[in-house]
Amino acid sequence: MANISMKYKMKIEAAIVGENPELLIQVLQSVKRGIRLHQALFSLGPEELGSLEDKDKPDAKVRIIPLQLQRLFAQLLLLDQEAASTADLTDSFGWTSNEEMRQHDVQELNRILFSALETSLVGTSGHDLINRLYHGTIVNQIVCKECKNVSEKQEDFLDLTVAVKNVSGLEDALWNMYVEEEVFDYDNLYHCGTCDKLVKAAKSAKLRKLPPFLTVSLLRFNFDFVKCERYKETSCYTFPLRINLKPFCEQSELDDLEYIYDLFSVIIHKGGCYGGHYHVYIKDVDHLGNWQFQEEKGKPDVNLKDLRNEEEIDDPLIILKAILLQEENNLIPVDQLGQKLLKKIGISWNKKYRKQYGPLRKFLQLHSQIFLLSSDESTVSLLKNSSLRAKFDFQRNDQHIFKTLTSESPGLNDRSSCPHWFDINDSKVQPIKEKDIQQQFQGKESAYMLFYRKSQLQRPPEARANPRYRVPCHLLNEMDAANLELQTKRAECDSTDNNFELHLHLGPHYQFFNGALHPVVSQTESMWDLTFDKRKTLGDLRQSIFQLLEFWEGDMVLSVAKFVPAGLHVYQMLDGDDLTLSEIEIADGEDIFVWNGVEVGGIQIPTGSDCEPLLLNVLHLATSSEGETCQQLIEFPHVFPANAEVGTVFTALAIPVGVLLINNTESMGEKSWTTIPKEDFKKTFREQGVRNGSSILIQDSNDDNSLLAKQGQWIASMNEIDWLQVKNLCEIESEEEQVKISATVNTVVFDIRIKAIKELKLMKELAENSCLRPIDRNGKLLCPVPDNYTLKEAELKMGSSLGLCPGKAPTSSQCLKIMLEKSGLPGDAWHLRKTDWCCEAGEPLCEEGATLKELMICSGDTLLLIEGKLPPLGFLTVPIWWYQPQHPSGHWKSHQDQTNCTPPQGGIWRPISAQALSFVDSPGDGHAEVSLHYLGDVEISEDATLMELKSQAVALPSFSEFVTPSPAFLRVWTVGNKRPDRLLRANQQQLKEYKLGRRSEICVEPLQKEENLGPQDVLLRTQMRLPGKRAYALPLDLVWDAARGWTAGSLRQRVADFYSLPVEKIEIAKYFPEKFEWLPISSWNQQITKRKKKKKQDNLQGMPYYLKDGDTIGVKNLLVEDDDDFSTVRDDIGKEKQKQLTLGKKKSQEALRVQSSHVFSGTEAPARPRGPEASLSIHVGSFRLPGKVVLEEIGSGLVLSFQGNRSGNGG
C-alpha cells in the first residue's frame, strides 16, 4: 500500500486517477468499502471468469469487466503506489476518451455499473451478487376505508432516492415516504375494485425487504419552473451515522439489530447543477489506514463527565423522556413539552434540534415506539411499557450493539483502534473526524449519495489490518511482482534524483601563473568526472577520491573552485566530514580542487573570493627602443588580484606613475572613462568597482592633451553606436528616405528632429508642425515623443529607428480642443474622462499640459467628452444632496416642497439629474417615502476637513430652505445607487483621507443633537415589528460599539439593551431592500453559513450579512410574537414585481429566439454554452446460452427448455 501523506502518517489505498471521470472513482471506492462486493468478486476464479491473457482469442470465454474490477480492487489493496489507473476498466466498458471526460450523474453511473456487472456474471456462481448485496423491495398499499380491501404493488430497488427540498434530513424524508399516508377523499376519491365505486382510501408505502447494503441518493438537483432553469438545492440536510429503519418497515417483529444501519461512505458533490467535482468520505472498516492528526499530540484529556452531559443534551430522546417521566401519568401537552424543554436546557427546540431532527411533533411521531400522541396531536405521553426502563432498554440495546461490533474484533474498545474516516479526493487522501461529516449537510459542497451497511455485518478478526485477506493467489503474485518492479524503478529514480556530477581538478596536474591555476598538459587530462550521491558525507567523498587516486600521498584537501576569465580559482575549503554534500550546499556540476591545502607546484596560491583574479585590458602609449614615448596606443590583457591596490598597476608594468582612467562599461566613448584621483590609488580594484573585462587607460601626467582626443580614429573603430535613424514619413519627397543622426543619451529630441529635417532637406515649416515617433521591430509607429525629452527620459536606445511624422505630439488639452472642434461644441466648460474596464466614465484627465504618454493614454483608448469644468488641481467639486429620513420623534421641516428643486445651470457639472431621487427608506407598510433633494455643488480643497465641508454645504443658497442650528447638527454620507452609502465620521479629518475621488457625491442628514461617532461605532436603523401586523414602527438610530468584534451576540445584546428586553426574548434580522428579503442574525446562522476559518465565521461584516452603517435591522419581541416571519406586505408586492419582471425578460428572450430562428434556419442558440448531455452506457458482451427454445408437452402443460452451449466474449 502507498504511503500517501507523510503529514498524516497515513497508509491507505489511494483514490483512482487516470483517463476517467472522477465520479467513477468515488463509486468504486464506496462500493469497495462495502467489503462484501470485492471479496465476493475475489471468490470467482479463472475457471468461471476466464483470463485476461485470453481476451483476444475469438473462442475464449473471458468476462473482462469482473476481471478488471478484481484487478483494480487488488491494486487498491496491495499495490505500493499513490494512485491506481482506471484506464483498463474504462476500456472494458467500451468507453472512448470522449465518453470518459463527460459530466455524468454519480447515481446514474452506480446503477449502470451494477447492471453491467450483473450482466457480466450471468452463468457464474456470482450471478445474483448484486441482488444479494443491494436489492431491496418496497410495497405500496392502498386501503379502502369502506371494505378494508388492500391493494398492493411491490417495487424493487438497488438504491433509495429521497427528497431534499423542504426536508430537514434523511429521517424526515423517510418519514414522509414510508410513515405518512396519502388520503383520497372529497374531489380525489379512489375507485375500489371490490366495492366497484369511488371511495375514500389511504395510500402508504413501507420497506418490505432491506438489503445488507443500503444506498441512498439525495435529490439535490431541481427545476425552477418560474425561472425555467435547473438549480442545486444547498439547504441543510442532516443524516445520522447510525439509523434505525424499523419505523419505516412493514415487518417489525424481527430483532432490533436487523434494522440498525451504520454509515460507511458519503459521496460529496462540489459545484452546481451544470458541473462540479466529486470526492468521497470513507470509513476504514478493516483498519487498513493509519489515522492520525498531528494536532492530536499533546491534546489535553477530556473530562468524561462533561462529555457525557454534552452527549445527553445533544440527544433529544433522553431529554424528552426525562421530562415526561417527571409528569403525572407521564402525560403532557405538546406545547408545554416545548416550554419544559426550554427551561431544562435553556434553549428552544427550534434553535437546538429543528435543523437536524425536524419539527417536534414529527420527531415524536418518528419515535412512536416510545411516545404516544393523541388523535389530535395535542398531547403526548410515554407508552405504558416505556418508563425509566425504556431509557435503560435503549442504553442496553446500544451496549449490546457495541458488544456485537467488538466481540469479533479484539481491541476495538481502544479509541485509537476504532474505525476511522478518510477523505479521498482524486489522488489526495487525508484523515477526517466524524464531526467533519456534518460540514457536508449543506452548501455547494454537500453530500449527494449515502452508503449504509447493517451493523450486524461484522468482519472476521483475520481481516483486520490485513489487505491480503482472501485475495486470490494469482492476484497476490501479480501485485507482488508489480511491487518488486516498483521498488526497482523507485531505486533507479532515487539514484537519478540524488546523484550528481562533480568535476575533480587534481592539484599535481595544475600550475599557478599569471594569477590563476592552469592545467599542465590539457584540461581533459587534468579533470576527472565523478558521479556521487549527494546524501553521502564529505568524508565519504574524500574516501572515494583516495580510492580512485592510488598515487596520492599526504593530506588531501577538497576545495570549491570556479573558472574565471583568468583561469581556475580556488574559493572555499570544504570541512565537516560528518556533513552531507547537500548540507554543505554542493551543487550539481561543482568544480572540486583536490590538493594539499598549501601549495601547487611549489607555489603558495591565494584562495578566497577576496583575491579573485581579474582579467583587465590595459591601454597605454608604446615606448620606442630609444625610450621615447610613441603616439601609438597599445592594448594588452593583464591579471590583478581583486584585493590589490589600484596603484600596483604602475609597479606591475614598470612605468612611471601617471594619470589612471577606468572604463567599466562596454562603450569606449570619451564619456565612458572615469579618472581615478591619486589619493584613491591605495583603494583596491574591488572598491573601485573594477570587474573582469574592465579597461584601464594609463596616461603620462605631464601630457596636457588627452589620449582620448588624440586617438579619435581609434575610438571610432570600437563598435560604438551613437546615432539614431530617422525616416521620412511626412509624405513629402526628399533626396533621402532616411538619415543617421549622431546623438548621446542626453541629446534633446527637439535637436534630433531639427537635424533630421535639415539633413533630409525638407521644408522649414515642418519644424513647427512635426514630431518623432518610435518604430518598433514590426514596423509599427508608437506614441509621439515630446520635444523637451532627452533620449534617456524618452527611453530610446541608440541605434533605434524614429519616424518623422506631420503634426505635433498632442497634450490632453490639445486633445480636448480637437474633440470640441470635431463635435462642434462651444465653450470651455468641458473635460475629458478615460473609460474604465467596464466601459464607464473613469477619473478625469486633470493635468491639461501633460502629454498623453504621461497620462498613460494608449492607441485605441476611448475618451469621453463630459460637460463641466474641472476644479483646480487639489480641489474637488462635490454635489451636495439633502437626505430627509423620517423619525418617530419628529424631524426637521423645510419651508417649501423641494421635490421640483433644480440646481443652477451656469457651468456646473451634474453627474446626477437635478430632480429629487425618491426611495423607500423603510420596509414598513405605513412609512412615507423620503427623498434626496439636490442643493448644489461645493468646490473645496482636498486638504479641507469634514467640518469645513459641512459649513460650505450650509452656506449654499438652496440650504436656506432648511433649518439647522449649526453644521455640527449634520451627518454626512456618500451617495451610492441613489441611496446613502458610506458614513463619513471624524469632523476634523481631511477629505483626502476619505479617498472620495472626483465623482463622489455627498448627502447631509439633519440630526436632533450633535454626535461624535468613534472609529468602531456602527450606525444602524432599527425597527420594532408591530405585534399582530406585518409592519414595523418608525426607525430609530442605534449606535453599536463593535470594538470587541462584529459578532452576532454583541449586536443582539446591544439591541436588547436599547429596547430594554431580555436578549433571549428578541430576534433580529437584516433587511436587503434590493431583494425585499430579511435575513435573521444569529450565531447559529453564521456558523452553518460558511465553512471557513473560525475567526471569520462570526463576523457580520462578511458573508452573508455584509453589515455596514445605515443598514436596517428588524427587531421582533418574542414575548408577544413567536414566529419566524420578518416580511411585510410591501415585501410581497416587491417580490411579485421582481417575479413579473423576470418572466417578462424570459418572454422577451424567447421572442428574440423565435425571431432569430428564421435567420439561423430554425436553429436555436442556447442561452449559455454548455456541454451536450448524453446518456451513459457500459458495453457488455452477451453471456446468455445461445441455442433454440423448444416447447415440450409434459403432462397437461407446456415447458420451455433451452438447448445449446455457453459461449461468448466481452465484458
Structure commentary:
There is one protein chain. The protein has 1211 residues and is α+β, with helices and mostly antiparallel strands. Among the domains are: 11-130 and 467-488, no CATH class; 136-272, Alpha-Beta Complex (Cathepsin B, Chain A), CATH 3.90.70; 329-381, no CATH class; 501-608, Ubiquitin-like (UB roll) (Roll); 613-700, Ubiquitin-like (UB roll), CATH 3.10.20; 723-806, Ubiquitin-like (UB roll), CATH 3.10.20.90; 812-870, no CATH class; 1016-1083 and 1099-1135, Phosphatidylinositol 3-kinase Catalytic Subunit, Chain A, domain 1 (Ubiquitin-like (UB roll)), CATH 3.10.20.90. It is 24% helix and 27% strand. It has 29 helices and 57 strands. Strands 7, 12, 15, 16, 17, 21, 22 and 23 form an eight-stranded mixed sheet that branches. It has a six-stranded mixed sheet with strand order 46-47-45-50-48-49, with helices on one face. The longest helix is centred in the last third of the chain and has 31 residues, at 1129-1159.
